[in-house]
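S2.1 Query sequence (Addiction module antidote protein, HigA family)
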Amino acid sequence: MNKTLSPIHPGEVLLEDFMKPLGLSQYRLAQDIGVSPIRISQIVHGERSITVDTAMRLARYFGTSATVWLRLQVRYDLEVGEAKLSKRIQREVKVLRGSPGPPLTKAGQQAHPADPPSSRSVGA
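Output C-alpha cells follow.
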C-alpha cells in the first residue's frame, strides 16, 4: 500500500512552529505585523496563501527571511498542483524533442528563450 503524506500548508508551519511555541494568538500576531486577524486565521486554517506582503511581515517579525515563507507556499502549491494536474498535463502537453530547454543563468534561473545571450548566462 502506497501512502503519501498530505502537503503541508505554510499556515500549519506558522501555527505549529512559530505561534504555539511562542504562545502567540492569531489576534496578537495580526496586530503585531499590521494585518487583519481574518488574514492570519485564513492562513493558519489553510484557506489563504502567503503573499509577498505577508511573507515580508512574517520575516521581519520572526527574524527569518521572506524567502522561507514563499518557498513553503510554492512547495505547497506545487505539491497540490501536481496531485491534481499531473495526469491531465501528461495527456494534454506534448514533449519538445531535441531541445535541452532554455539556458540557466548563474543565479540558477532559466533565461527566457527570447532573451539575447549575456555575460550573465552560464558558460559565457
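Confidence is low (pLDDT under 50) at residues 116-124. The domain at 10-92 is CATH 1.10.260.40 (434 Repressor (Amino-terminal Domain)).
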